[in-house]
Amino acid sequence: MNKSKRFLPLWGYLDMRIFYLGYSVFADIQRYSLKSCTMDDFPISTIEAVCLGTSVALSGIFFYIYRKKRRTVDKLNEAPRLPLDEKLTDILNSTPGKCLQYVVIEGAVQPVGEPLRSQFQEGTVGVVQKLVLKEHKLVWNSLARAWTDSERVLHERISSVPFNLVGTKKAAVRVLCPLEASGLDPEIVHEKFHQVSYGFTDIIGQYLSGEKPKGQLETEEMVKVGATLTGVGELILDTDRILKLRPPTNGSTFFLTPKDYDTMLAEQESQATVWQVLASLCALAGVAVMLWAARRYYHHLQARRERDRLRREFKRMAAGGDDEEAEVPANACIICMSEPRNCALLDCGHVCCCFSCFQALPHPTCPVCRQPIKRVVPLYQA
Hints:
Domain RING-type: 333-370
GO molecular function: ubiquitin protein ligase activity; zinc ion binding
Number of domains: 3
Oligomer: single chain
Order of helices and strands: HHHHEEEEEEEHEEEEHEHE
Protein name: RING-type E3 ubiquitin transferase
Pfam families: GIDE, zf-C3HC4_3
Number of helices: 7
Enzyme class: transferase
């Protein structure tokens, strides 16, 4: 059994648990933040909310791509590799529906009719032709204060003709919808760069407009006749007794590539691993943001408990410490002018307000000298 496939359920379970945990905690924090805006409680900062939402969204997207790649790798591992020979027709005849859902076939390219001829290389023929004309230029980036490369496709044309994959003893399989296949990398048969020439006035205009045309790149790519391709898809035996390879009807990925099966499988596994690592890193970043917010909230709770303790102590002081009624001192709070001054503001040492007014200060500064208040202590009068 494949080692990566053996650990797949564990990785998938952990990534999914992390994703759902991050999403639920993010929703709870958002609800708590909205509540805190009206109840003067501890809110999550905007930067933390943006970072947490971004990490959750990216981890979800990366995990979806990883699962898709992982399913493709699993199907490639399970797909049978059939030799392209005369026995292939007998295999399809004995199969229910004369159809194999997902198979791997390798063969040489052979056109059914007239092949496509290269427009630049005489004697070069193929079955898929791609002509591209790109414009290359330099664009001034005001943020980086430098010229950056930019390209734009001016013209693109893709043509194809019906073709077969031919094996031993003239056994052939017709390839349907080759342009829908993944991994079809045509060979570059022509590439030429046409450089732009300009004068002094053109240079002045380029600096004013912020664009410097470099030239146009002309390329021609072809899938040549005789090239070996690996096809992965649905194999059917049509009513005209012709074997055909087409995109799978069950939604699996249709491959048509010049690479061999082992190279293609290793490439897909590598891509799945990359997306898995990205999803895990984003999920861990979200967990780190949640832990940081939880740490801040813990310190906030400690500070609130200390404030509550001081408030209760000042209330006991205002009540005289026992059931006897205390006389209201003549030195009233300079803020509310009704309660006695019952706290000292440090480090300045001013005794000018009551504890309730101290808590209501918009900024922790002394109302007398405007120095920062580092701590407050209650005053006990005998």
